[in-house]
Write a structure and sequence with these properties.
Distance between the termini: 18 Å
CATH topology of the largest domain: Alpha-Beta Plaits
Number of helices: 5
Largest sheet: 4 strands, antiparallel
CATH architecture of the largest domain: 2-Layer Sandwich
Strand order of the largest sheet: 2-3-1-4
Radius of gyration: 21 Å
CATH class of the largest domain: Alpha Beta
Helix content: 25-40%
Number of strands: 4
Shape: elongated
Length: 139
């Protein structure tokens, strides 16, 4: 994969529905070159698929963070159900290693974020946690 392929992928990440002509113009190649490159990236498995983002996928939360959780015994499934029911919890991941679960949290204010953390820490089965604010994200 060279710089042209990388530029094509960046352009597709911005707008996967862009026409071949628009993609070619944005990366400075001919339409035919863009088509050949795109077909090769798909055939080679570098591009595994295309997706759609809906309005609900793009959260306007001003404050976001990751909360790593240690769960007592075999209570992870119960805690996971309670977490996914909370509006502030975007997604919950099960994991291995030190932490049993990782919850991504998003709120409009730091005060709301603090309240969500407090509620999670009080849940039965949560024995320890560590939280990191997300400062910036890139795709």
């Amino acid at each position: 994969m060279d710089e042209t392929d990388s530029a094509l992928i960046r352009a597709l990440r911005k707008n996967a529905r862009a026409s071949l002509s628009d993609l070619a113009a944005s990366i400075g190649v001919t339409r035919a070159t863009a088509r050949v490159r795109l077909d090769r990236l798909i055939a080679g498995g570098e591009i595994a698929g295309f997706t759609v983002l809906t309005r609900s996928d793009i959260r306007p939360d001003a404050v976001r963070g990751l909360m790593m959780l240690e769960i007592a015994g075999r209570g992870a499934e119960k805690v996971m159900k309670r977490l996914t029911a909370m509006p502030a919890v975007i997604v919950v991941h099960s994991t291995n290693g030190t932490w049993d679960l990782i919850a991504e949290i998003g709120t409009k204010t730091l005060e709301d974020f603090d309240q969500a953390l407090f509620a999670i820490r009080r849940m039965e089965g949560v024995t320890r946690s560590e939280t990191s604010l997300l400062l910036s994200s890139r795709r």
